[in-house]
Amino acid sequence: MSILVVGSVAFDTIETPHGRRERCLGGAATHFALAASYFTDVRVIGVVGEDFLPEHEAVLTNRGIDTRGIERAPGLSFHWTGAYGGAMNEAKTLGTDLNVFATFSPKIPDAYKDSEFLFLANIDPVLQAQVRSQMPDVKLVCGDTMNYWIADHAANLAVVLKMLDVLLINDTEARMLSGETNIVRAAAGVLALGPKALVIKHGEYGATSFFCDRSFPGADSVAKPFRAPALPLAEVVDPTGAGDSFAGGFYGYLASQPKLTPEVFRRALFYGGVMGSFAVERFGTERLQSVTREEIEERFNLFVEISHLDLVSNGAGNAADAGA
Amino acid sequence: MSILVVGSVAFDTIETPHGRRERCLGGAATHFALAASYFTDVRVIGVVGEDFLPEHEAVLTNRGIDTRGIERAPGLSFHWTGAYGGAMNEAKTLGTDLNVFATFSPKIPDAYKDSEFLFLANIDPVLQAQVRSQMPDVKLVCGDTMNYWIADHAANLAVVLKMLDVLLINDTEARMLSGETNIVRAAAGVLALGPKALVIKHGEYGATSFFCDRSFPGADSVAKPFRAPALPLAEVVDPTGAGDSFAGGFYGYLASQPKLTPEVFRRALFYGGVMGSFAVERFGTERLQSVTREEIEERFNLFVEISHLDLVSNGAGNAADAGA
């Protein structure tokens, strides 16, 4: 089934301990769409300037991504400049030039209206709400946000949170949104604000899902949390877009399945981790342009291998059999 | 098989957002021994003062722990005072009164000499090395350390690291020991210092094992890392001793099994998380005194449930079957 994503299509200037890249293609919608494109059809809503050339659009269209919803405006595209230190777990933003994004008003092409899955990437919650309202019949709505909107646009964000089936945020954002430091209580606090399900991303430690109650089709009978691992990586070249790639793998897999079940939701968290792990291997969108379906399945199996006990053969015996 | 543990038996004065406890029984060897006692026989080497009363010893002997190696010395027992803030992930040490521990010289009773598993809890590496040298025939040696020894006793610690089969430390300690920020490279750096296997504890995010090479019997054929989850807990009453309880569950399970295999090693990581999750539910050793074997198995199953896909029925289908 088709995913409609609204978010930034941008240029990033990135500095990490592995080097520097000037104005490479980026933006939340770009990373999300590339990751999701390995699982299902993706349609993008965004705005770009005159610096967005056919070669940039080809990055998306080569993956079969529908770009008819990317509006062209006079001026320059959104441009973000950031740097990562040694630990690479947080970017230092050096510059945010909104450019054509400053006056963006999302318009949904008629050809997109039958999209069944909606993803509201990290943009102004006012725009997220506008798009959500124009797509009343979607099957599932998933969204992202960030510290800036949580801190300074709380009232607008509150409206969006009530519109979401699934919210994807990180630990810090969950703590900010809820005012709780304990992550389980933070999750409960966030769920009380509206979303039916919550995925909290822990960076290099994986992700945890939490559910409002068992009525959400991705929740098991007692709506228990679920923990998916991340791959221990010896080399992170560029973390930019890792969270959006996680979201693309997660939501792309959900949209590719005939039915949303607890098991599908759990596997989606694994595919999220898989796509995030590819994204950081190279600068910008490089790795997500070149990954193959076979590599994705191979890495999914690796995620299982490094996190699962051998429950089938039960070869190790059980503590209950042992002494003491 | 029997575990011999050497480490602190102490009193802790603890303040957390849930309250304050004065001089409750604590110490690394105490938490470790209690956790391990649910899996196998445990023998303790340590020193206590005149304030260590029969009621304190009974906490250990009630769990069948052998206390004949706990030496009595004139004066007071080791006393630690610490406080935890809202996030509860790091203790602020307010006082460390070594007391009888300052002049501790471990002596191993003859009755302990046939112990097959040795655990060197977090104490002066000089003492760790002394005990290791007196137990040349043990089957497996596992040890712990902390920032203080890493920073100020590096040469002594280097000697111990070469004596270890398994080292258990946390993220910060692994980074300090190796000088690497990336955790996979940090693990490689630590393994180069001597231990054959390394377990890095990530607090609320679980733990990861790393192996020097495939010659370690707990490593799989390519010595891949393995990630075990932690339980998302809504209430952490007192984190004191969580790491030692993890070590006790981990090593106690290893010692309870007839053979060390990769699957046994993986399950041991799960049991470590299980015992750590119990430890933090109440102050001091309270919870580890009262937990039952049934509760341990129940929680082990819960750890599996919140981290494992349903690979048997494969009910959700596979991304390779889906569109795009």
TrEMBL record, chains A, B:
Provide a GO CC annotation, any one.
cytosol
Q: Which InterPro entries match?
A: PfkB_dom, Ribokinase-like
Q: Which Pfam families match?
A: PfkB
Where is the Carbohydrate kinase PfkB domain positioned along the sequence?
Answer: 4-286
| GO molecular function terms attached to this record | kinase activity
Please indicate which superkingdom the organism of origin belongs to: Bacteria
| Record keywords | Kinase, Transferase
| Name under which the protein is recorded | Sugar or nucleoside kinase, ribokinase family
